[in-house]
Amino acid sequence: MIEVKEVSKVYKMGKEKVVALKNVSLKIEKGEFVAIIGPSGSGKSTLMHIVGGLDSPTVGNVYIEGNDISRLKDKQLSKYRNDKIGFVFQAFNLENSQTALENVMMPLIFAGISKKERKERALKALEQVGLKEYVKHKPNEMSGGQRQRVSIARALVNNPEIIFADEPTGNLDSKSGENIMQLFNEINAKGYTVIMVTHNPLEANKAKRVVKIKDGEIISDIIKEEEIALGGEKDEA
């Protein structure tokens, strides 16, 4: 489903060049739950942003279902992100003046969905993440864990194929973080491909595959033992 092929990313900072990724190649199959782990500055978020269409490689290619998104123009990239991708960020990125329902409905406005259908789909997404009773609450009326659930509902509302999560528990206490990780496992079990960036080994271990990156290079790529025992087959639950 996803193939990153010999991708490098170089940023110019004044007269200096910063190499964020060095000749990275990676394949991710549909329905996988992959954690990309590494210290700050390792290149893990840069990799996620390139695969998610938020940034482009300096060299190399990124194929999604055989299509090279690294060569798409801005309008085409926007359509790709809206149709295929859901993003969850550490800082939630919610509009504080809007209710949970209104926040979740927002991506559907850009998709040209009718107001009635936007509301129906947003309500369904909020119910999916356990926030049926919080549709009228604004972010400042909710806990950090609940706000992250709203952002996950917003990522799900367009029924994307891939969910990207960038340090999704970074602003949460340990209990809320555990609950969010459980939610990602439930989402993955429903068939969504989940790609999570983290610096936390305990959280990375909740994924089914762990890709470690350091200094812009992949240094290991491990599938958890239980999946190896199943011959790499995905749980049908």
From TrEMBL:
SMART domains: AAA. It holds the Pfam family ABC_tran. Keywords: ATP-binding, Nucleotide-binding, Transport. The keyword ATP-binding applies. CDD domains: ABC_MJ0796_LolCDE_FtsE. It comes from the Bacteria. Residues 2-237 form the ABC transporter domain. InterPro entries: AAA+_ATPase, ABC_transporter-like_ATP-bd, ABC_transporter-like_CS, MacB-like_ATP-bd, P-loop_NTPase. Transmembrane segments: none annotated. One of its GO terms (molecular function) is ATP binding. Belongs to the ABC transporter superfamily. This is ABC transporter ATP-binding protein. It comes from Clostridium cibarium.
